[in-house]
Amino acid sequence: MAQLGPVELLFVEFPGNQFTGEIIPALRELIDQGTVRILDLVFVAKDAEGNAVGIELEELSSESKDAYAELVDELESLIAEEDVEDLAEALEPNSSAAILLFEHTWAIPFRDAIAHSGGQLVARLPITEEALAEIAAAG
Amino acid sequence: MPLRRGPGLVRTVGRTAVIAGTASAVGGRVQHRQQEKYAAQDQQQQPQQVQYVEAPPAAPSGDDQIEQLEKLGDLHAKGILTDEEFAAKKAQILGL
Predict the structure, then answer these.
(1) Taking the mean position of all CA atoms in its chain, how far away is CA A59?
(2) Is B2 on the interface with A (CB under 8 A)?
(3) Which of A59-63, B22-26, B62-66 ranks highest by mean pLDDT?
(4) What is the dihedral of CA A89, A91, A95, A100, to 10 degrees?
(5) pTM for this structure?
(6) Which of A48, A67, B22, B33 is the most exposed place for a label (fewest CB within 10 A)?
(7) Which of 46-105 (A) contact B at CB < 8 A?
(8) What average pLDDT does this structure show over B51-65?
């Protein structure tokens, strides 16, 4: 695979077994602006009993499928069955989710600048809202 | 349809993050569930862990004990062991 910008997996839960298209315009904008690229995409649905199933883009209803298909050039098949299983454990019953694999194309120039200056990115750590809230409360 | 049979991203990131010394990037509810799962697995695996602490010498078992006690009794009867020596040695054999 050619050198990619930083890659990140997002696991987005939706209540009920609907893959709502509301996030699609927002994703469309990010992609059109060259901010991110979607490398891979898998959906997960969990029923009321807690049984989860992975769903490929191809398997969605045609309306959802067409909408999401516009966001992806070619699925890289990096999200494994194992990931669907692991992530599905965190999914609430009677809900659905999208597993999105982003390439952060916006970060490429910055990464290159670091490399050219002889620097090295040692660690990356998303700071959660919970952590910020806890720190704010302590301060 | 993509095959998706390979190693998972979530576990591979967790594994390589430990090796590289970077913090786990998997957060929130997913990390919590993963930790619960692997904690449960760790507990199940404990009986297989190697004991590094030196155990005290074990008392001889069953048949060995009887054999040793017989020999001991023999020595005591022949007057080779005093009453105290016999009692002490007998206690040791029995692991008391």
Answers:
(1) 18
(2) yes
(3) A59-63
(4) -100
(5) 0.65
(6) A48
(7) 54, 56, 58, 75, 77-87, 89-90, 101
(8) 58
